[in-house]
Amino acid sequence: MHSKIDIVIMAGGKGNRLMPLTQNRPKPLLKVGDKPIIEYNIDRLAHNNIKQINISVNYLKEQIIDHFKANNKHQIDFNFISESKSLGTIGSLKLLDNLNKEYVLVMNADLLTNVNFEALFNDFLSKKGDALVATITYEVKIPHDVIETKDAYVTQLKAKHSYSYNLNAGIYLFKKECIDFIPENTFFDATDLIKVLLEKGKKITNYPISEYWLDIGKPEDFKKAQEDIKNIKL
User: Fold this and answer.
1) 127-138 pLDDT per residue, tens
2) How far is CA 162 from CA 142, 167, 208, 210, in A?
3) I need a labelling partner for 47 at 20 to 30 A (CA). Which of 1, 3, 121, 174 fits?
4) What is the pTM of this model?
5) Closest Cα partner for 202 from 95, 130, 119, 137?
6) Domains of the chain as residue ranges with CATH
7) How far apart (Å, rounded) are the C-alpha atoms in residues 208 and 203?
């Protein structure tokens, strides 16, 4: 896996929803248990023999850069992509001139997950897609029967009490040529790129994450992470 993939971790966001925790500290450096959120992802990638990692930084970026200068137990070759303005969740890839491998793995820094990256990569190869979006199953439970109506008349009564949706898990894998569709120096999210690729007729595959996954966006997510970390091996 590692010889074919460039890794980019997106760590430039402000973490507005976690204020005031992120007032003086970037979200990726907030501690869950005894170490920063981003380090769990670095550890997992290092476990997959990844030796080079690009980290896209913006908000309070010096703290992230300094942190890894002082803490690099895996001897990773870090390359920091410094945004001069906010470029969304994937726009900063256009600032990289060292993407020279066949594939690019892009992930958000604020995820807590023990996803198997090797299995994800092999799944992608087996399906022969152009890009992959990792997803999490989200179930909505409905307490009563669903009544469908048209023009004030009942047309159907459904006894279905839950609906399942695939939610974006913030982990993507792209063939290198997909990166060409990202515009220069423009705010551009990973979801924007997926939409463009779909319009171009590219094949996007889905990888459902069956392992633990948590996106730390809101205070309640951060609180949940502090509890979960006591019981989950990451």
Assistant:
1) 999 999 999 998
2) 6, 15, 19, 19
3) 174
4) 0.87
5) 130
6) 5-136+168-228 (3.90.550.10)
7) 16
